[in-house]
Design brief:
The complex is a heterodimer.
Chain A: E1 5-9, E2 15-21, H1 24-39, E3 49-57, H2 60-77, E4 80-92, E5 97-107, E6 121-122, E7 128-132, E8 135-143
Antiparallel strand pairs in A: 1-2, 2-8, 3-5, 4-5, 6-8, 7-8
Helix pairs in contact in A: 1-2
Chain B: H1 3-8, E1 11-14, E2 17-20, E3 32-34, H2 38-43, H3 46-55, E4 65-75, E5 77-86, E6 91-92, E7 104-113, H4 114-117, H5 121-131, H6 146-162, H7 168-172, H8 190-199, E8 209-218, H9 221-227, E9 233-240, H10 243-263, E10 276-277, H11 281-316, E11 327-332, E12 334-343, E13 346-355, E14 358-359, E15 378-381, E16 389-394, H12 398-402, E17 405-406, H13 416-422, H14 425-434, E18 438-441, H15 444-449, H16 458-467, E19 471-484
Parallel strand pairs in B: 3-4, 18-19
Antiparallel strand pairs in B: 1-2, 2-3, 4-5, 5-13, 6-10, 7-9, 7-11, 8-9, 8-19, 12-13, 14-17, 15-16, 16-19
Helix pairs in contact in B: 5-11, 6-11, 8-10, 10-11
Classes of the chains: A alpha+beta, B alpha+beta.
Chain lengths: 144, 485
Amino acid sequence: MNTSHFEYLPHPADARFIAHGTTLEDTFEQAAQAMFGVIIQNATLEPERQVDIELESEGLENLLYDYLSELLYLFEVEEIVFGQFKVDSVEQTNSGYVLKGSASGESIDTECHNFETEVKAVTYHQLKVEKESEGYSAHVIVDT
Amino acid sequence: MTQQQAKDFVRKVDDNIYDVPMDFQEGMRVPGRIFVSQKLMNDLEVDTLRQTANVATLPGIQKYSMAMPDAHFGYGFPIGGVAAFDAQDGVISPGGVGFDINCGVRIIRTDLEVGEVRPRIKELMNELFKAIPSGVGSKSRLRVSGSELDDAFTYGARWAVESGYGVESDIEHCEDGGFIDAADPEKVSEKAHKRGKPQFGTLGSGNHFLEIQEVDKIYEPEIAKAYGIREGTITIMVHCGSRGAGHQICTDYLRVMEQASRKYGITLPDKQLACAPANSREGQDYFKAMAAGANYAWANRQVITHWVRETFEKFFGRDAESMGMDLVYDVAHNVAKLEEHEIDGIKKPVYVHRKGATRAFPPGHMDVPATYRSVGQPVLIPGSMGTPSYILHGAERAMELTFGSACHGAGRVMGRAEAKRKFRGEILEKQLADQGITVIATHPSMLAEEAPGVYKSSSEVVNVMHDLHVARKVVRVKPIGVAKG
């Protein structure tokens, strides 16, 4: 059974979500999908442009923070609104974790992309990556 | 602890002053102090109390961990949080400033009467909306070079004025003269430079706005006169911040501070409170980068002001000077400052963190511009969309009670997702139009997110500051035209 999905939870100022995945890779992909769901809703985004992502961080939570922050950075600087997220591997090393993957989407066009909310940043507030009986979950609050 | 048990801890000290005692939570070094009315206290989320208590555990905190009357649940510090840390033994925390470094507000006066503007407000808003890029993904009309960007990081509004975007008096009417001189662009990452460059001169999104207002009530005629405000005239308010540059600076340094907290053995009740000793390399690096972010925001608001003036000149066929388009004041809402405050009878330097709070210096304070020194610093409190905004003046109890700080707005009570379920942008637009307010936005859902119903009452919040003599009401302005990103 594929248990990968995400859900939004109420928060008075910001967007809060939990991503679930059968693997760490799925969980990270779901978290990215959830975050871009805050920025743009129900959009069909073609994988016209792709960027590769490779990150190394000391811990899983920092890796998630770095991964989502990197996507926000690429969104603004490369001007790509991402619709597909692929995390090929999350591997433990001597000094922490390494993530390899890619994200794809369309060049930002404010004429046709109806942006919902600006996500300023990923917060550390209640940021968690947890092992569950079936897979993993990630708790994230982004500042909007 | 249940919600009720948590609230039972809170002790009323005086009207509009409540304390969170140190036994509320383990590790508190000082009590929490919440400045709210009885009504606002009843509505206060327990999480806001917990966050206020969390801040009280940080090393070197002075007197109280404070929450202004518009305080609400944020991350790390509550929004509306004020805390001062000893410059020697205290800490600096990016979480005490927030991602949108120097998100702030400025107000421009005019001699235009409301009767001259109201009949043409729709066309005027359209022109302003065209002139000032706003919304997610919007790009600036300005193409700054790398060295110009560094100059903006270093000299803020002063750089903008020297580059032709404004007049000398604009700088005199900015908090800190429009720049913090501790800034060092070398402490700002390549990523923050890259994000900042194309967005320089953009309004942004979310709660940011540009508003045309009518001065509808004067509380203190003499002080209003000193600020150049006259009843029945038009004012222009700009609310925006440091855009992607600030967001990236905070993102980068939270990461640095997360490691620094461990290195220096600082116990954190919440990782978003990550911090470093004020005099450590990490602490000073962040302070210099944050100052650069703050300066970027001042330069950004200055460039936008220039475009507002240009638009008015073209639209009304008169020059800005003849319309009296002078900057009244510009305040930072999210910032950490090295200031001198009296603590237990001794004056000493402290890093005052204001996260969703406004500086509110009283009459006579040397950091108030000379033209306003006898009446106190203008304190600008934007209302939510469609509700009044206020100009207050810093008053006599501000230094003693709040490290010279006041509230910054109405304060949210509802999340954005819930707001979108409850309100429809198109209906709101119609309702506001019925009240004589023209609203223009990139997307109708933006309006729903910012519906007046998702905020506390701005008058209730302002009255707390007024009654405490922290900041006193001078002028009320009402929107007639609003542009949202």
